[in-house]
Amino acid sequence: MENLKEVLLKNHQDHLLKYLEIANEDEKQKMIKQIDNIDFEQLNKLYKISKNNNFNTNCKIEHSSFVDKSKLTIDELEELKEVGKNIIKSGKYAVVTMAGGQGTRLGHDGPKGTFLLNVNPKPKYLFELIAEGLIRANKKYNITLNWYIMTSTENNDKTVEFFKEHEYFGYPKESIMFFEQGNMPFLSEEGKLLVDDSFNIKYAADGNGCIYKSMLKDGVIDDMKNKGIKWIFVGSVDNALVNMVDTVLIGLTIKENNEIGSRSIVKSNPHEPVGVFCKKNGVPAVIEYSEISKEMAEATDDDGELLYGESNIMAHLYSIDAIEKISKHDLPYHSAHKKAPYMKENGELVNPTKPNAYKYEAFIFDGFSYFDNMSVLRVKREENFAPIKNKEGNDSPETAIKLYNNFWHV
Question: What's the pTM?
Fold first, then answer.
């Protein structure tokens, strides 16, 4: 306890001692174990991030090249498809679904992938939509693709149970592997660790950028290498039109001799609040809309195309070597101001009505910076992107349902 007190005092977290005084023995030992596992040096650095701009505004931003799928000739398309098809049919391709989030913003109590979307001809769960797409690809290429699903500490058990209850939506369960992303502690606006009503330090998932280290830690990379997998597609669970098996993207990335590739859609207008592909200090990146000036957002090339118009839709392709390379690096953390319920030192529960704490996340696209170039394939929004982020309005179940039904003509 003396060592513990010294550590907490040194790092300005001695308020935790008051929780330890009112906790029962089991709760006390659990909290001490959690405190022992905290990297306070990292925590102090993260708090400084919260008080400063998340992004380096002095970096050099340049236009990123892309290939517009709609402008490829039939012969060019067939050439790329053939390359991609050979990779898939030879068993060298796998898919990863990022599904660590909860459906809170949708008013859904449970993992986001368990959200039921009221599409025609019958409602389907988000996980079910992805399973159906993979089953179609398996039949088309006469193969069973390995499907890796990234969950979180918060939703892993419920996700695994959900798949069991629904008999894996007809997908071979031996070809599905679940793995968990990591966590980072919340910090209050004063830089203090928060505690919940079970005397646990409050944690949150550490962002999609930690997928690389999670794949390394949980043996996913080793599993892929043992199975001879060379190319991996990573997509998000909350896109009702996500295409997990894209022969053109595979073919383009290989033809351009790159280790990473991604699909993009053109911005609906210069000021659409989305991240866009670019070159940042000479390497591939995604720049947030808040990072570029009005002039940059509206800048066009000789053909009238937006210079910064390729929106990131979370549809990324990697070589296995690329994922392994990124997994050995620590990506930067970014802070987000969030509402986090907590327990006061006197045992009183607080349910805040406005943001009161900082959450720390790494972004998946920060991993692009370890490569000189990447392939970007522009595709049609109405065929590839039906995001479900909000309960109503833009990017809601209502808009996703319409896009899905229109795409499938149902």
Answer: 0.93
